[in-house]
Design a protein that fits this description.
The complex is a heterodimer. Chain A is mainly alpha-helical. Chain A has helices spanning about 20-50, 50-65, 65-90, 100-125. Chain A is built from four helices and no strands. Chain B has one domain: 3 helical TM bundles of succinate and fumarate reductases, CATH 1.20.1300. Chain B is built from five helices and no strands. The chains are: A mainly alpha, B mainly alpha. At the A-B interface, α1, α2, α3 and α4 of A face α2, α3, α4 and α5 of B.
Chain lengths: ~130, ~130
């Protein structure tokens, strides 16, 4: 095995992704994460269809600390995917391709995600 | 509908495959899911701490039954289209790719049917 002394090209592990790249991959990651949430929603509905006993068991599990943590994660993922999805719709409509506009819409997606998540959990825990 | 221009089709330029149809379906479901997902989250907040009878009564109202069904079916379709793209991007072995694509389609069908049956069963109380 020869020792390479020349510099290597930037690799994902050492390359700091720009904000727009982070948002892009986060959109995909939250999308896949939401599919897991969809499976849980199906399980919850099936429990509700089975009757009060199964439904109460499902409610207890979702109301446990781990359940609440997961629900919080899915709330963040849903609102990010929603806000960032609107960004994609705007791009598809031809708006916002310039770099400054891309940064504005990207930061707006983060702010909207944080705001909606906050509103929902304050309302849910009130 | 098709988004390709008549001239583009006549010249035979561009992809002859189903990419446009796929992307169009993603857009239409995304537009529909913007209001539906906000309605869904708002409804769930209203049901925090509700017992079985209350959830059943809520889901039994025709508007809620209809919107819940619509949300669930659109989400499944949107999720299946998204997962398909993720698989096509990251799974390179032909066999593994085919197997995952089939699994996603069948899994989506299972989720859609399971959730539809559950929603209707709870709503109609049979």
């Amino acid at each position: 095995m020869t020792t390479r002394t020349r510099p290597l090209s930037p690799h994902l592990q050492v390359y700091r992704l720009p904000l727009l790249a982070v948002l892009s991959i986060t959109h995909r990651i939250t999308g896949v994460g939401l599919v897991a949430g969809l499976v849980v929603l199906a399980w919850w509905l099936c429990a509700a269809a089975q009757g009060p006993a199964a439904f109460n068991a499902a409610q207890d599990l979702l109301g446990s600390p781990i359940g609440l943590l997961a629900l919080f994660g899915w709330t963040v993922a849903l609102f990010f995917h929603l806000a960032h999805g609107v960004r994609h719709l705007l791009w598809d409509a031809g708006w916002g391709y310039s770099l400054p506009k891309a940064y504005v819409s990207g930061k707006a997606a983060i702010v909207v995600t944080a705001a909606l998540t906050r509103i929902v959990w304050i309302a849910a825990l009130a | 509908m098709t988004l390709r221009s008549p001239l583009g089709r006549a010249r035979g330029l561009g992809s002859a495959k189903s990419g446009v149809g796929h992307h169009w379906a993603v857009i239409v479901t995304a537009v529909g899911l913007v209001p539906l997902s906000l309605w869904f989250v708002t409804s769930l907040i209203g049901l925090v701490g509700a017992d079985y009878a209350v959830v059943r009564g809520w889901l039994g109202q025709p508007l809620n039954t209809a919107l819940f069904l619509l949300t669930v079916l659109m989400v499944v379709h949107h999720a299946q289209l998204g997962l398909q793209v993720v698989i096509e991007d990251y799974v390179h072995g032909e066999g593994a790719k085919m197997a995952s694509l089939i699994a996603v389609r069948l899994g989506a069908a299972l989720l859609a049917v399971a959730m539809t049956v559950s929603i209707l069963k709870v709503a109609f109380g049979v």
